[in-house]
């Protein structure tokens, strides 16, 4: 059974062509709606279009667009929501094609803010409380229900596992002090603790050489995204 599963996983995306050509030269050129449709063809196509290599190749072919926030006020207050919509201002597009919502969040959500990003994936805060992950290129998003009341400090790719993770600072009164790591899955955040004698960090860290950095007056705080440890450097 294990051998059969391994053979199925190793099966080419499209028989007769190398996966490198299929993924990076064919599938990566599809428009977002076509990418979503091809994911429903078979498990092999879904796996191929869910890898970091594909995401980077596909995102690299997408235009840089501003994000708009649209409010839906129709109906009762419980039905109100916010649309997150890129404005595709390229010439030759109809109005309907220029404004294609990538996410609708609600109810009673009034505004959003980009808290962190990695490989063109966006972490959005809704009303400064709830969080969601959004892929504007493929028009997909998902709420991060386990992270209510937690402040993101950065998003990164954990190279040993190829998982996207968030570094968090808890704002819950009942939570343990310090920082947490959250893998984009259904598992609860993992407690890291707090560097000894260090004031709390605020804001999203700047990425440099695979680590997150925060300027804190007389020193720079550094988070190694591979070992998931902190260190300090004096200025």
Automatic annotation (TrEMBL):
SUPFAM superfamilies: F-box domain. Residues 17-54 form the F-box domain. Coiled coil: none annotated. InterPro entries: A_thaliana_F-box (IPR050233), F-box-like_dom_sf (IPR036047), F-box_dom (IPR001810). This is F-box domain-containing protein. It comes from Lolium multiflorum (Italian ryegrass). The lineage of its organism: Eukaryota, Viridiplantae, Streptophyta, Embryophyta, Tracheophyta.
